[in-house]
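Onboarding guide, step 5: your first structure request.
Type a short instruction followed by the sequence, for example:

Predict the 3D structure of this protein.
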Amino acid sequence: MTDRYANGMRVRRAVLGDAHVERAEAARTPLDDAFQTLITESAWGNVWASDAISRRERSMLTLALLAATGNFEEIPMHIRATRRTGASPQDVVEAFQHVAIYAGVPRANHALKLAKATFAAMEEEDDD
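The system replies with structure tokens like these:
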């Protein structure tokens, strides 16, 4: 295991939570092993580990980029991560407003729909 991988796992756990990472690791197979190592070292051990911008800002950028590129399946995961990154629901709305102007209203609208549903689910989980 490389230092970048170990650091990536530490950051990944800090942002996404232990339970999410444990589920992802349990689903890991020889088929996707190299890919999982790549994203752990690159996305988490390099990009997310950088202290050049805050995790709050990085979270907002990530959500905006996911919405702008139409990669909606990861939005709920990153909405859940806002609890750990410090990005508020209003921060998310602001990021999606940028998406609406620069990448298109339909994408921003769908991303906001996912965010609303995820925030609501998170509130329900807190009430349990």
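Each response can be followed by summary notes, for example: Helices lie at 3-16, 18-26, 33-47, 55-68, 75-85, 89-102, 105-127.
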